[in-house]
Amino acid sequence: MKKKIYSMLALLLSIVTAQAQTIPSPKEHFGFNIGDDYQLATYTQTEAYFKKLATSDRAKLVDIGMTEEGRHQYMLIVSSPENMKQLEKYKAISQQLAHATGLTDEQAKSLAAEGKSVIWIDGGLHATEVVGTHQLIETMWQLVSRTDPETMEILKNDIILFAHANPDGQELVTNWYMRTADPKKRAMNIPRLYEKYVGHDNNRDFYMMNMKESQNISRQLYVEWIPQIMYNHHQRGPNGSVLAGPPYRDPFNHVFDPLIVTSIDAVGAAMNNRLNAEGKPGYTQRAGSQFSTWWNGGLRTAPYFHNMIGLLTEIIGGPTPETVPLVPERLIPNGATPNPVAPQEWHFRQSIDYSVSLNYAVLDYASRYRSELLYNIYRMGKNAIARGEADHWTFYPRYIDSIQTAYKKDKKDSLLASGKKDTVKESAEEYTLGKEDTIAAKYYTAILKNPAYRDARAYIIPADQQDFPTAVKFINALSRAGITIQKATAAFTVAGKTYPAGSYVVKTAQAFRPHVIDMFEPQDHPNDFQYVGGPPVRPYDAAGWTLAFQMGVKFDRVLDSVGGPFTQLPYGQIESPPAHTFAISKTGYLLSPAVNNSFIAVNDLLKAGAKVYRLPNGDFYIPASSKAQESLTKSVAELGITVNTATGSSKEMKAVSPMRIAIWNTYGGSIPAGWVSWLMEQYHYDYKTIYSQEIDAGALRKKYDMIIFVTGAIPDTGKPKKSDYWFGKLPKPEELTAEFKPWLGRISADTSIPQLKTFLEAGGQIFTIGTSTNLAYHLKLPVENALVEKNSKGELKPLAGAKYYIPGSLLTADLDTTAAENWGMHAKNDVYFERSPVFKILPGSNIKQLMWFSTGTPLHSGWAWGQKYLKDGVAAFSVSVGAGKLYAFGPEITFRGQSHSTFKLLFNQLYK
Asked: How far apart are CA 395 and CA 133, in angstroms?
């Protein structure tokens, strides 16, 4: 009997050994160790290795979708063989606990005890940050091959989702770096963006999810697996440190559960502790880096609004050895950097080892606190549902300011009544929020129990709004984020208002309530300065971004519970706008410019050879024809647009034809130009890319009718500053092949501006956005910077940050709706404003004012310190230059493919 048992054990051992031998180590597969100096793996090689790792009984490879360039994007699931056999069971438990519906606390605790921690670890999102992808390969290999007690315990308790975040970028970057034979001359100066359209902004796309990779990742995070922890690897660490990691600096967003903040602290402590225990110094946190938890939209930050513990580390290192520089102040141990690192030479493998240690710290924490993590995501979801089902007030800074204002007013009135006029000013100034115990509770009740300030219980998006197809795109962004959405099957009435069938209802009594609130409500960023009277602390990204405002979606905010004939959409379901029909006309048809999809229909009509005209009110008039009928039939079915019958034409209508459009770009790639290129393709505009060398060569009018310059293209008229050249250092021509040499160069005052002026005078048109409105100053047009003041010497200087500072925020602007440039726009519209140019038009000029700020309080979402300086400032204008025309739009009207409500400010200008 014993012999049989020994024989069986020997057989099993030989099978396991044979299996291990079929999975090569990274060196056996790639030909080098992960982390060897001057060595990088391509995605083609990595994909092949993923498939070999997937032959292990600890792993399963999942194709999560296609990339923008048509590659497969993979996620490798790793756990114990026993867990791998029950993945669907554990996925269902993770979903149940995350959604927190239909469960009692006891049932949730039981599921938490039964389930497994689900942890997401990704790499490669920013492809030039090559540690990310390579630590992913190394960690996968170690978890699949190691048999030490810690690894086995992790595999027993955790299910790890290893996701490649940017396959296209890895292929581009590695091929570029490795193309140079001499290792010491290898460089990362790639010629184009490492994500087809948006480069670095692929980490700014996680509430809109325009890019395919963002959609693939978000489905796994918010619909399929809903992990309790997600870990997003990045580079680069602050100078004088090895890496920045959690916990992060203030402010954190007011809408998510406090368990998010304390859980980040706990996991961050585990990560820092492990490095310290292993003798790996240089971890900095909190005020030691720029990273906060305020902004939504990043791969790491969007999970906070879904009750997930989002982790980010930014580490130094790369295949070319470097040096940890000396930053004296970072050598003093403190709460931000308790274990400083000394200046030293640094190698790629050190970054890989640090990263693997950090991964193991997270996985070990998840293993040890498995049931707690699972229960806590339920608890946060349950808390969110409870807040959405009852009256609830969020502690926004504006409400706290109202408490202070009310207290100060009463104190002032009391002093005046008692005759102490000489102490009123001093008393008011001495009050600070640090003396809350001196304030009566009535001030709290007056503000934070005021029914008018309650959080919404639901948002209703009516199906009869004019641009409903854009509203459906907004709904799809919510659906991709795993939001619970209901759709009306019949008309219903709420608070005396009737809504048609097909309207959408988004209730806040759901687990992901923080994300719902964040997409519908204005962000209220606190005033954040380095010290009283000092410069502002720049937000990590945007200060305000409310997607419903950016997209121009019409919705009603409901403060009480809502019921009706609703059906819940399946999680992640993508909606299409309702298909329409139209009456066949013998005269013609009308399309409204207020509907963004109308521009797609117009471009398709023009490509089909149909005639299109513009009426004096901006509507598109299409004479009846078989080509028009065929194209419009397709458009109403797919685009959800309404085609109205024209009763006749107009003598004042003008024929519309396509322009020859060029979009400026540069070597290395412009992210804003990439977004505009993507946008043009979505709306069926043809375009070409133009570089500075072609501009400098002249003869532009023979080739183009319109040139678009995004922010960052046109330098200012003063001495060149670093901010004018944020695209990176250009390589030397001799370092490039013939394909890329024409991409070199920048727009210059000496050679480029004269050619642009000639282009305009010959009848060409130029559209400028953001800082590229500098072109108006180069052309010496009668406009001035509205955001300046005289210093003690009488010189005009930009307003100091202590007086005026507006990072990325949404401001409400006024528009001239009679201007052809603004056809289809509302008289007031939100614009994305990021320290954007504002102008003063000089008297007696021929400049047409298109957009301006009529008040000194235009802030709608975000942070606008000193916004009073904007009053009467001009945000956009157009002007004739010779036979041509210049358009200048200071705000970012195409911002990251999100600001749908201002897209038509570009589209209106793209026809002859």
From this structure: 40
Average pLDDT, the chain: 94
Residue 721 CB partners (closer than 8 Å, separation 6+): none
How many angstroms separate the CA atoms of 445 and 454, rounded? 12
Nearest-angstrom CA–CA distance, 282 and 237? 9
In angstroms, rounded to a whole number, what is the distance separating the alpha carbons of residues 788 and 782? Answer: 16
Q: Hey, CA dihedral for 783, 786, 790, 791, is it positive or negative?
A: negative
Q: What b/e sequence results for 776-807 when a residue is b if at least 16 CB atoms lie within 10 Å of its CB, and e otherwise?
A: bbbbebebeebbeeeeeeeeeeeeebeebbbb
Residues 6+ apart with CB under 8 A from 185: none
DSSP state of 529: B
Give the pLDDT band of residue 432 (cuts 50, 70, 90): low
The neighbour count for residue 739, using CB atoms within 10 Å, is: 8
pTM for this entry: 0.95
Contact 298, 327 (CB under 8 A): no
**Alpha carbon distances (Å) from 3 to 315, 658, 697, 759:** 54, 85, 87, 92
Q: 498 forms bridges with which residues in the sheet? A: 493
Distance in angstroms (rounded) separating the CA atoms of residues 894 and 35: 40
Instruction: Name the band, by pLDDT with cuts 50, 70 and 90, for residue 3.
Output: low
Between 258-277 and 370-389, two packed helices, what is the crossing angle to 10 degrees? 160
Please state, in angstroms and rounded to a whole number, the distance separating the CA atoms of residues 381 and 256: 10
The Cα 185–Cα 474 span in angstroms is 47
Describe the chain by its helix, strand, coil percentages, rounded to 5. 40, 20, 40
More confident residue, 161 or 407: 161
Q: Quick check: 433 pLDDT over 60?
A: no
Cα–Cα dist 234/8, whole Å: 47
CB 291 within 8 A of CB 248: yes
Question: CA-CA distances (angstroms) from residue 47 to 41, 99, 185, 364, 449?
Answer: 10, 33, 27, 27, 56
What is the chain's alpha carbon radius of gyration, rounded to the nearest angstrom? 29
pLDDT band at 7 (very low <50, low <70, confident <90, very high): low
CA dist., res. 378 & res. 700, Å (int): 61
User: Which of 549, 628, 621 lies closest to 862, judged by CA?
Assistant: 549
Run of H or E residues at 448: helix 441-448
Q: Distance of CA 611 to CAs 47, 310, 686, Å?
A: 49, 53, 18
Q: Can you read off the two tokens belonging to residue 602?
A: 């117009």
Query: In Å, what is the CA distance from 632 to each residue of 316, 464, 612?
Result: 55, 21, 12
For residue 494, give both structure tokens: 């709420």
- Residue in this structure with the two tokens 């309790």, named with its chain if needed: 228
Write the DSSP string, 765-801.
EEEEEGGGGGHHHHTT-SEEESSEEE-TTS-EEEPPT
Which one, of 408, 532, 392, lies nearest residue 454 by Cα?
A: 392
Residues 123, 161: Cα–Cα separation, whole Å: 11
Non-local (6+) Cβ contacts of 290 within 8 A are 238, 244, 249, 538, 540
d(CA 591, CA 604): 13
Do the strands 644-646 and 654-656 form a parallel or antiparallel pair, or are they unpaired?
A: unpaired
Q: What is the pLDDT of residue 237?
A: 82
DSSP state of 456: P
List all residues 6 or more positions away from 402 whose beta carbon is below 8 Å from its beta carbon.
447
Q: What is the arithmetic mean of pLDDT over 850-877?
A: 98
Residue whose C-alpha is closest to residue 107's, from 115, 430, 458: 115
Burial class, 564, CB count within 10 angstroms (exposed 0-12 / middle 13-18 / buried 19+): middle
Tell me the pLDDT tens digit for each residue of 650-659. 888 999 999 9
Dihedral-angle region of residue 858 (phi above 0 means left; psi in -120 to 50 means alpha; beta otherwise): alpha
The Cα–Cα gap between 416 and 423 comes to 9
